[in-house]
Backbone:
């Protein structure tokens, strides 16, 4: 289990004519521990993200205490980047695009 806390993740590359994310659904990369996230890339003519909880996310969680047993020594890896290439991008009703970290790692770029 300790080894899984230090391995890096892959990337997600979505290519489509149209991408729709709604009703609390997401396309996401997330990790805990020292993992470094890959990038999330979406290439489409149109991207529609609608509704609370719906979105594109990369997030590195601050769960290092799982390895150390001490919440004061928590750590996290770096979040990846999000790249959206589209003619039209629509965010409605709290739909989001977010690259973040909840710990010591760097947040990604959008």
Residues:
């Amino acid at each position: 289990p300790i080894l899984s806390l230090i391995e890096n993740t892959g990337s997600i590359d979505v290519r489509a004519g149209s991408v729709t994310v709604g009703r609390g659904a997401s396309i996401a990369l997330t990790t805990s521990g020292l993992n470094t996230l890959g990038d999330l890339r979406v290439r489409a003519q149109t991207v529609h993200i609608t509704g609370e909880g719906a979105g594109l996310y990369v997030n590195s969680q601050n769960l290092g205490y799982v390895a150390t047993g001490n919440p004061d020594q928590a750590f996290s890896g770096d979040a990846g980047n999000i790249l959206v290439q589209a003619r039209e991008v629509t965010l409605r009703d709290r739909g989001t695009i977010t690259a973040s970290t909840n710990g010591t790692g760097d947040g990604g770029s959008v």
Observations:
- The radius of gyration is 15 Å.
